[in-house]
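Q&A log
Question type: sequence-to-structure
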Amino acid sequence: MPAVKVNIHQAKTNLSRLVEDVLKGEEVIIARAGHPVARLVPLQRPRKLGLLSGRLSVPDDFDEPLPEELLAAFEGRE
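Response status: OK
Response body:
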């Protein structure tokens, strides 16, 4: 999705709408005299560790070699 480019006056006038656009995945470039000076993007929040603790399990054979036919399919040697 291409970024939206606005001048500083438009950004000040429409800040609430621009923030809503950013929250929907849009990137906003703010320009002064036609030159980009700032980028408005969503804030990256730190992830909480352990949210899935006890909900997932890893099979005992997780790190065993793949069967030859499956390995061939991954490598495009079907």
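Response note: The mean pLDDT is 91.
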